[in-house]
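Fold this sequence, please.
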Amino acid sequence: MRPLFLFLLGAACAWAQPFSAGLKAGVPLTDFFTTVENISYSVPNRYIIGVTAELRLPAGFGIEGDVLFRHLNYTDRFLSTPVTTTTDKTTSSAWEFPILLKYRFHTPIARPYVDAGVAWDTLSGLTDTITQSVAPVFSTTTTSTSKPASLSNNTTMGFVMGAGIDIHALVIHVSPELRYTRWASPHFNLSGVIDSNQNQAEFLVGITF
């Protein structure tokens, strides 16, 4: 009976670990691209959505992991010759994987917190479509590639820090947060024409159970 009791006690302790998971969504506060010169430019989709999970540790600490998704695109249009108009459209999905150490301050109901850690961001489904139109004869040619000239790094790593408030409402936690990421290297770098912004600010809201 004693081994069975110890086994059940160990299982109960394992299930009692303060683990939470849920959804996280928000908007970027900075543009994905930082330099756009002499082109017609379309604004990227301004939303972020994903999932989050956290293991709460003693003394107000916790470890959080997120999987965040955003869709990005840019279109530039310019005269490559006096009679030829070139349109370059790039679309991609960006997947961000932050791992954060979090500290909550001990206050009732609403607990302010700070967090910091590292993140990886990788592109998937990258497509670059170039269309050239010649004015006098109205002829059009189109080519596509998954490795545009502007692509510098498909995956990049960065340092993350943030601050927010954990609001406990019944059985859920609502956590609005401001988060800043400094990427070590850019995804896109095309000599000052199209460059990725290595400084990323976001407003995120997590809903966990």
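The longest strand covers residues 110-134. Residues 28 and 202 are 4 Å apart (CA to CA).
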